[in-house]
Amino acid sequence: MFNKKNCMAVLLAIPFIGFTQQPSDSISIRKVLDEVNVNALRANEKTPMTFTNISKSEIEKGNLGQDFPYLISLTPSVVTTSDAGAGVGYTGFRIRGADPTRINVTVNGIPLNDSESQGVWWVNMPDFSSSVENIQIQRGVGTSTNGAAAFGASVNLKTDGLNKKAYAITNNSVGSFSTLKNNIEFGTGLLNNKFAFDGRLSKISSDGYIDRATSNLKSLYLQGAYFGANSVLKGIVFSGHERTYQAWNGVPLNYLDTNRTFNSYTYENEVDNYKQTHYQLHYSKQISEQTNYNIAWHYTHGEGYYEQEKLGEDLADYGIDNIFLTNDTISSTDLIRRKWLNNDFGGLTYSLNHKMSDIDLTIGGAFSRYSGQHYGNVIWAEYASNAAFNHQYYWNKAEKLDYNFYAKANYAYSDATNIYVDLQRRRIDYIFEGLDYEGNTAEQEINLEFFNPKFGFHHTLNDNQSLYASFGVANKEPSRSDYTESTPESRPTHETLYDTEIGYKQTGNKMIFGANLYFMNYENQLVMTGKLNDVGERTHVNVAESFRKGIEIEGAYKLTEKLTWTANMTLSENKIVTAFIEHIDNWDAGGAEEVSHENTDLAFSPNVIWASQFNYKLGNNISINFISKYVGKQFIDNTSSENRMLEDYLVNNLRISYEWDSKIFKTSKLTLQINNLFNNEYVNNAWVYRFISDSWDPSGSDHYINPDSERGYNMAGYYPQATRYYLLGLTLGF
C-alpha cells in the first residue's frame, strides 16, 4: 500500500541518450572506433532492452570522493550500501534486489567481476569514476556480455576517449569524518594527428562514520593511443591500492539508538590491504563503411590480505605443533592471522560489427583464464617461542577457464519495426580444492555449458513514441564459497533466469517519459540466507521457483525555463514460489531444525524504490539540486519475519554548484553537497544468523544476540548510515 512518502514521486528520470550517428570527419571516425570495444555489448536506441545511460557530465556532478555505487544511486531500482556509513571504503549496490555477485560489470567490454566470488569491490578502484566517459546500466538479462551472467543487471563502463586538446584538471574535496580527495587529470591532446596520452593520480582518505572504519585509498590511470586513418590502438593501465579498517560485523541491534557508530573490532591492524592492477590493450579497425572489428587483450593481477586478531583459537585448527610453543600443555591461544589472496586474470575479447542493408550484425566473444592462490599465515601467537613466527596453516589454488561466443542481429523489418536476436554459448571449467564425498579436502572439477538466447522487437509509433518487448534466458554458475563450503552431495546447482521486459518511451520538448514492465522468473535461484561467512561474504541456497516482477517508471519534466524535475520509481513484488525451508541450528541438541515458510519475500528486495531530483538554475553560474531517495522496507533473510527486517527510509541531499569565469583557469567550479540533509537515522544493510538454545540464554554474553519472538535467537549486525554530513569540492582545469 502507498503512504505519503511513496506518493511523493511517481515519474520521471534520466533522459535516454541515443547511439550517435555515423560521423564523416576523421576525428569523429576515430571517436567511433574508440567506442567499438564497448558497443558490441551495449544497447542502442532501437535495442529492445531496458537501460539507462549516464554521461560524463552527470558523473562529474556528484563525484566528490564517494565510491562508484553512490554515483549511480539515483538510477532506477538501485539500492546503495556502505559498511563505513559514508560512501567511502567498502560499498556496494543492488539492482532489482540482485546483489553485486549477480550484476555483470565490464570495463571497455572486459569483465571486472571476480571469477570466483563473482563480486566487484569498488574499494579496489578508488576514484575510477574520474576516468569514466559514460556508463550504461542494463536491467534484467540485457544483451549478451562477457564474464558472469547478468542475473539482475549489467553495468558497462567506458573509460575516457579521445581529447583533441591538451588539458590538466585537479579535483579536490574535503568533508565530514576527515574525508579528503585529491586528484590530478592530464592529457596531451592529439599529437601529430596520431598520438594521445592521458593520465590520472588520485588519493582518497576518510575516517568513516563508523568507529575506526578508516580508508586510505590510492589509484592511478594511464592510457596511450595511436590513431591511424582507419584504426585505433590503445593501451590502458589502471591500479588501486586500498588499506581499509574493517567494519564487517556491523552494529548490534540494541546499539542502534545509543551507540550507532559502534565497531566490535578494536585490534589496531584489523585491516584489509589489497592492491590490484589492470592492463588492457585494444585494437579497433574500420575495414569499410559497413564493417569494423575490435580485439582486446587484458591482464589483471591482485594481491593482498586481511589481518585478524583471534582470541582463544584451537591450535589444532591451525596445524600448529607444540614444538612452536613454550609450554607443551597449551591447546589454545590468542593469535593474529592474515588471509591472503594472490590472483591473476587474463584473456582476450573480440567483436566484429557488420551493417548490411537491413541488418546490423555483431559477432563476438571472449576467452579468459583465472588463477587464484588462497592461503593463510599465523603471524603471531601468544605462546610462540619465535619472535619471527610466520606459520602457513592453509594453502590452496583454484583455476577457472571461461569461454563465450555470441551473435547479435538487429533486423529492420520495416521503417518502424526492428527485430532483435541475440544468441550466446558459454562454457566454464573450474578446478578448486573442496570437500569430496567423504568430507576430505581434495581437488574438485566443475564443467558447465550454457546457452543463453534473447529475442525482442522495437516499434516506433511516431516521432515521439516507441515501444519494445524482449525475452531472454540467462544461466549462472555458483560462486566459489557455494562450492567450497559444500560436498558434491550437497553442492548447489547452477541457476536459470527467464526474463520478459515490455517498455514504452515518449519524448517531447518539455517531457521525457518511460515505463517498463518486467517479469524475472528464476529456476533454482541461489538466494541469500542472511548469514555471513568468516570473511564477510553472504551465503546462498538454491530455491526451486522464485520471481521478481514490477514496473519501472522514469522520466524528466521541464517545469520552467530554470526548473527541471527528474525522477524514477520501481514498484515490485519479489517472491519465493515454492516453500522456503529455513534451517535453524540447534545449539542444545546439535544439528538443525527445519521450518517451512510459504509465499515469502526474497531477501533485500524492497517493493518500493524511488528517486527524485529537482534542478534549479540560478542565473548562468549557480545550479541547485534537491535530491531524494526512498527505499521501502526489506527483509534480511527469506522468511518475511518482521524480527529480521530493515525499516523503510527516505534520505534527502542538497547540492549547490557554482561555476565562474576565470582568466587563469579554463574550468573553475565549487560544489557543496549536504548529504542526509534532515539528519535521519537509517540502516540500509544487515546480516543475521538464527539459532535455537533452550537450555541457556546467550544474549548476555554477546551483544549481537537478541531473543526472537517466535523461538530461539537472532545473531545480527546492522549497518547504520551517517547522519547529516558534508562534502565540499573544488575543480580547477587548464
Feature tags:
734 residues, mainly beta, Maltoporin, Chain A, 22-stranded antiparallel β-barrel, 5 helices, 37 strands, disordered N terminus
Task: Report the total helices.
Answer: 5
Number of strands: 37
The top level CATH class name: Mainly Beta
Overall geometry comes to globular
CA-atom Rg in angstroms: 26 Å
Largest sheet: 22 strands, antiparallel, barrel
Poorly predicted runs are 1-24
- Strand content range: over 45%
Distance between the termini: 53 Å
Q: Please identify the structural class as seen in this structure.
A: mainly beta
User: Could you tell me the mean pLDDT?
Assistant: 90
* CATH-assigned homologous superfamily: TonB-dependent receptor, beta-barrel domain
Task: Kindly describe this structure.
Helix content is about 5%, strand content about 55%. It has about 725 residues and is mainly beta. The chain has one domain: TonB-dependent receptor, beta-barrel domain (Maltoporin, Chain A, Beta Barrel). Strand 18 (about 415-435) and strand 19 form a beta hairpin.
What are the SSEs and their pairings?
Layout: H1 4-7, H2 26-39, E1 50-55, H3 56-61, H4 68-71, E2 78-82, E3 91-95, E4 103-107, E5 110-111, E6 132-139, E7 153-159, E8 167-175, E9 179-187, E10 195-206, E11 215-227, E12 231-245, E13 271-286, E14 291-314, E15 332-355, E16 359-381, E17 391-412, E18 417-435, E19 441-460, E20 465-476, H5 480-484, E21 495-507, E22 511-532, E23 538-558, E24 563-576, E25 580-586, E26 592-597, E27 600-601, E28 608-618, E29 622-631, E30 634-635, E31 645-646, E32 649-659, E33 667-675, E34 683-692, E35 705-707, E36 713-720, E37 725-733
Parallel strand pairs: 4-7, 25-34
Antiparallel strand pairs: 1-6, 2-3, 4-5, 6-7, 8-9, 8-37, 9-10, 10-11, 11-12, 12-13, 13-14, 14-15, 15-16, 16-17, 17-18, 18-19, 19-20, 20-21, 21-22, 22-23, 23-24, 24-27, 24-28, 25-26, 28-29, 29-32, 30-31, 32-33, 33-37, 34-36, 35-36
